Amino acid sequence: MPIRLRFQLHGTRHSRIFHLVAIDQRVRRDGKPAELLGIYNPRLQLGQPEKSMEWSVDRIKYWLSVGATPTKSVAKFLEIGRIIKPDTRWHPRMSTPP
């Protein structure tokens, strides 16, 4: 069963929330995930200086170690959070030929 790390879309039209999940890649975007790994709310709350992401680093590293592949957008977030290094095989720029 090929597992992917990707975002699920939740919330109403103008207040979206994204869940970072480990899910079978053949399941639709909002299907039942194998595991919820984090939550990203792109809207700033009052008094909040920057956007934040809550995630479980140990579980993300586990899923990457057993062969899960992150999507390009998830790979960018994982690189910003220093969970994966820029020179890994999941880096978005590595998929384009030189």
Automatic annotation (TrEMBL):
Database matches in Pfam families: Ribosomal_S16 (PF00886)
Keyword Ribosomal protein: yes
UniProt keyword annotations, A-Z: Ribonucleoprotein, Ribosomal protein
Record flagged with keyword Transcription: no
InterPro entries found in the cross-reference section: Ribosomal_bS16, Ribosomal_bS16_dom_sf
HAMAP family assigned: Ribosomal_bS16 (MF_00385)
PANTHER family the record matches: 30S RIBOSOMAL PROTEIN S16 (PTHR12919), SMALL RIBOSOMAL SUBUNIT PROTEIN BS16M (PTHR12919:SF20)
Designated name of the protein: Ribosomal protein S16
High-level lineage: Eukaryota, Fungi, Dikarya, Basidiomycota, Agaricomycotina
